[in-house]
Amino acid sequence: MKTVSIEVRPGEPHEAAAIAEVHRVSWLQAYGGIIPHRPLIQMVNRRDETWWRKATRGPATLLVVDVAGTIAGYATLGLSRARALPQEGEIYEIYLRPEYQGIGLGRILFREAKSLLRSLGCRGLVVWCLEDSEHAYSFFQTAGGSDIAEGMEDFGDKYLKKVGFVWN
C-alpha cells in the first residue's frame, strides 16, 4: 500500500510555473462557455509565471495544495474588499486542476484558508463566485456559506452576476 502526502502550505516563488498552469487549466475548465472566449483567454494569459512569482511575494496570501510533489490547486486570501459587508476576511480565489476535483482537496484547501484568516484575526469571511458557475455555487453552498450579496462583473461586452457567500 502506497501513502500519498497531501500538504497545504504557502506557495513559493519557484512554484510559479506550476501555479500558473493550475490557474490556466482550472479557469478554462471552470469558465469555458460562461465567460466569453476572448476575455477569458486574456485573463488566463495575463496570469503567467512572472505574475504568479510576484503573487507569492505580494500582500495577499497564496496557499497551495501539494499532492505528492504536484501543485494540485491554490487559494488566495486576505482582507475583504467588500467594505459594505461586515466580514473581515476574503478568499479571493480557490481552484484545483480538473483531475484533482471531486476527491475532497477543495474542502481541505478551503478549511485551511478559513483557518488561516481566523488566525490572522479576521472575523467572518466572504467568497464571490459567478452565479452561472454551478460547480462553484454548489461548493460554497455545501460548505455552509450563506448567499447574501450580489454584484455584476464585466467581461468585455457581457455582464455576469456574481454572488457573495459569507461565513460568520
Keywords:
7 strands; alpha+beta; globular; 168 residues; seven-stranded mixed β-sheet
Could you give the topology of this structure?
Blueprint lengths: L5 E5 L5 H16 L5 H10 L2 H7 L5 E7 L2 E10 L9 E8 L8 H15 L5 E6 L3 H9 L3 E10 L2 E10 L1
Helix pairs in contact: 1-2, 1-3
Account of the 3D structure:
β6 and β7 (158-167) form a beta hairpin. This protein starts with 5 loop residues before the first strand and ends with a strand. The mean pLDDT is 95. The chain has helices spanning 16-31, 37-46, 49-55, 105-119, 134-142, and strands at residues 6-10, 61-67, 70-79, 89-96, 125-130, 146-155, 158-167. It has one domain (6-123): Gcn5-related N-acetyltransferase (GNAT) (Aminopeptidase, 3-Layer(aba) Sandwich), CATH 3.40.630.30. With 168 residues, the chain is an alpha+beta fold. The protein is globular.
